[in-house]
Design brief:
CATH class of the largest domain in chain B: Mainly Beta
Order of helices and strands of chain A: EHEHEHEHHHEEEHEHEHHHHEE
Helix content of chain B: under 10%
Order of helices and strands of chain B: HEEEEEEEEE
Structural class of chain A: alpha/beta
Number of strands of chain A: 11
Shape of chain A: globular
CATH topology of the largest domain in chain B: OB fold (Dihydrolipoamide Acetyltransferase, E2P)
Number of domains of chain B: 2
CATH superfamily of chain A: Thiolase/Chalcone synthase
Oligomer: heterodimer
Structural class of chain B: mainly beta
CATH topology of chain A: Peroxisomal Thiolase, Chain A, domain 1
Strand content of chain A: 15-25%
Number of strands of chain B: 9
Shape of chain B: globular
Strand order of the largest sheet of chain A: 3-2-4-7-1-8-11-10-9
CATH class of chain A: Alpha Beta
Largest interface: A-B, 35 and 41 residues
Distance between the termini of chain B: 38 Å
Chain lengths: ~375, ~140
Amino acid sequence: MGLRDLRDQVCIVGVGDTPQGAVPHKTGDELAIDAARAALQDCGLKKDDIDGLFVQRSYGHQGDYLKVGLMLGLNPRVGGAIDGSGATGCYMLQHAALLLQAGMANYILLLYGTNQKTNRNRFGEALLEEHAPYGAFNPSLPFAFAFRRHMHLYGTTEEQLATVALNQRQHALLNPKAAQRTPLTLDDYMSARYVVWPLRMFDYCYITDGGHAFVLTTAERAKDLRKPPVYIRGMGRQEAFRAYETPDLVMQSFQQQAVAKMIFNMADVGVKDLQALYVQDAYSPAVFAALENYGFCPQGEAGRWIQGGRIALGGELPVNVNGGQLSETYMVGWQNTCDAVRQLRGEGGPRQIKDVELLMCTYTGGLREHAGALILQR
Amino acid sequence: MAEYSKPLPVIETWNAPYWQAAKRHEFVAQRCQACGYTHLPPGPVCTNCLSAAQDWVQLSGKGTIYSYGIYYQLWHPGFTADIPYNVALVQLAEGPQIISQVVDCKNEELDCGLKVEVVFEDATAEVTLPKFRLVRNNS
């Protein structure tokens, strides 16, 4: 049996979310549980149908698997925590798919909740302790390196990068769930302060409170549930720990090109078949990396390629039509896959991508260690 | 001398020789006795072949700026007077990349690909930080 045998065998059947932004009266764990209740309601399953549970640890020491399992009152057959930093949500979906296909569980619940906005998490720690003496704080540094390098190699401009943030804000204006819903102009972007040059404030994810949940089952069982199933057509991932020895890890080309090879082989589709893209955009240069490394555009071309409405709703490849983490909510990619599922069900409202049947969600995490992706199909 | 207020390296088993060398104003890395691979950050085995037989060798201290960022946001009070300060990813001549800072220059002078060489900044009586400066005669 190979990965291709898993194609279209497992489905996301339930999604759940909570209010995003500032939710000061709830802990992260409570928000995760609210999302769980919403996801069960969405698919019509009962709590005790769930026999698999995975919980992503959130910043601020919430999201402990054992504690959340206790609060939910579950005795799941399988479960646990996975540590893939910003790619954890993607990895959990993949683990769930493997466990369901193998028959070790029937219905798996995935949870994430955080109140890091209310807790004023400033992400001020160095990614590795050894970097702190040099002032290298905050996870944005590798993205600043990557974009500065991109400018150097390809002549990419800050105005071109601005298109990522402006495009996503435009999408967020149509999204009642989005935490950032004031119009953003190029002047606003260019006059915003630098955080870690060449990145400006609007290149950073917008820190929020909130919770998200997914329920997955096999394609066979999915037929009996409330909503149309969304099939996992392809998945891929690549870890990379030799970050100090392999320069192309900065541009994420090694990791993401490996993921691309795996996922397109499993899904038996190519980039031209994909009708939308969701990028786990902790920082806006993540969109450049995904477009180039998965092959949507040639290496070095992302800055030019995204101009002229190409990645806008209605364009050739709509990117992060929910607003992404820059404008919708920072839920380490969970919000993107949640929106992808709703789009494939036709629940996109004024943001609905016309006739969408096939799309991709990409994730990255950590300093440069984690990369993964999912191709989802109606 | 004012009290040093920036974070200091956490010195443990594997990186102690690196920091001891820095204190002597020497810039070193591990080199594998089995396969000859030169690597940083310090660790218990060779990241190429897993041999535990590792030497510490002097590096040339030469490298190039692979990329860099400039911090306008303050995350640690020790850096208040330095804002905006640079953090650079330096590609060392011997292979590894390290995160450090480029000193004795204006941020505007920095560029990807510029040649740099190591300098030693005595932070405290116990700790010296390897940093880099531009090699001015780039020709």
